[in-house]
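Holo prediction — iron/sulfur cluster.
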Amino acid sequence: MTSVPLPRPTIRSDAYGHARMPRRIDMPEPARVDRVAYGRFRNVYLYITEACQLRCEHCYMGERLDRALKMELPQIVETLRTWRKLGGSKVTILGGEPTLHPYFCEAIWAAAKLGYEDVITTTNAQVPAARKFRKMEPADFAYVQVSMDGGSATTHDAVRGAGTFDIAIDTTEELAGRGYDTRIICTVNKANEGDALRLLDIADDLGVSLVKFHVFSTIGTGHGNSDIAMNPLEWVEFCDKLSDAAPEYKSRVWFQPTYARRDQVERYAGEGYQGCIGRTLDRISIFPDGRCYVCSYLFDTTMNFAQMTDGQVQLNHGANEFELFTSVLSESSCGGCKAGACGGGCPAEELVLGTSSCNAYEDIVPVCRLWKSSAKPEDGR
Ligand SMILES: C[S@@+](CC[C@H](N)C(=O)[O-])C[C@H]1O[C@@H](n2cnc3c(N)ncnc32)[C@H](O)[C@@H]1O
Ligand code: SF4
Ligand code: SF4
């Protein structure tokens, strides 16, 4: 009897998609912007403190700012160690204002010691932050991200408080001058969209390597300020203006599309976009109370993915975000897909906004708000 050979299994590489991961500025040119396949818990966001000296009008931290819980240093180190073992390679230390934590420097150094390849922080760049960075070295960070919410003192200070723009500019200049890879992150709203692009001039003047724009999400304190939130059509128009302006600048320019016009969906699909990033478990954000979220848009909810208790990660067996992410695989968030490449849309929109953006706007398709694109084709497309 002749045996029929079994078919050989076809081994394919994981074609899910890619996240763009910024590399250190001192790396050789081709490696500077890397397209990295999604990996489980690759991006760790550690909220070492909920305390902050500012009360920005849009802040998603909301009531956490007044509660002001902070992690003790052993809790920081153990949490970093746990998520490193679970796949973490890039960690962002934030808060609240992370530089106000008495052990901010130690947290940064601990992350590098534990093997995280990229250690990042996001800061309001006020006087206490500048003082902390003077105790540190550019090599301590892959990059430092400074929040600037407008291209002038008028718009930035309206969100962040009087005098904060000038101080953030001074700190940014000092950091870039000392050789830190310094980046600007801007949350765009109706009030600052008119001058937000001035940040590109500021970035080139100060030696900032990258400017990232994202839309104001009406969560946390932002709930009370939904009048300054941009609607999807306004945001898509802003992104068009950004893409037109960006090639004129030295600094790299990224944005989070969040929404696409129908005619843009194929372009994002061509860049590797395949729907809700939450489903890939690409990231995890850990708060001092132990709650761990995959999706930042759900920070106001109790749908956190897991809970850390005494260093142990326990899955949330109640209503949880992972089940929300996968729900749109069987039924799209709008209930009738108009653009297959949306991957079912963003299931959190209905929860946060009451309806999906594709239901509310004929020509709009939601794009996961955690997903980034480059406004300059040469920067990674
Ligand atoms: C919560 S802050 C923490 C770090 C630091 N205090 C700072 O302001 O950079 C992290 C980033 O989230 C942004 N952010 C806060 N609330 C937001 C919201 N509702 N929508 C979009 N971005 C928001 C901030 O502007 C900042 O760039
Ligand atoms: S955005 Fe940052 S600086 Fe502003 S209140 Fe929130 S944590 Fe503080
Ligand atoms: S923003 Fe929406 S699409 Fe993105 S991870 Fe969250 S639920 Fe998923």
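READOUT: The longest helix spans residues 164-177.
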